[in-house]
Amino acid sequence: MAQLDIPPPEAAVTATLEGGPTDISAAHRQLTVTTAARKVKIPHLGGYEHFERVDGSAGDGAVVFRWTMRTRIAE
């Protein structure tokens, strides 16, 4: 019988998004990402808000991503 090489699933952590537009709700500022994630991009008002991981963590143990820029969605 053949054995398949299936990679293990990546571990996930809670991410907290800091900075950026003030109208991003608190609920949308908490999300789950893989432990290897260095950047996060979320859709917001016809564009994307970009966040990059910072060293350290939030007081609740979440990984922190800080806002870096906004891009518009090409149509």
UniProtKB/TrEMBL annotation:
Region feature Disordered, mapped onto this chain: 1-20
Domain of life: Bacteria
Ranges of biased composition (kind: Pro residues): 1-10
Protein name in the entry: Uncharacterized protein
Protein species of origin: Micromonospora tulbaghiae
Organism taxonomic ancestry: Bacteria, Bacillati, Actinomycetota, Actinomycetes, Micromonosporales
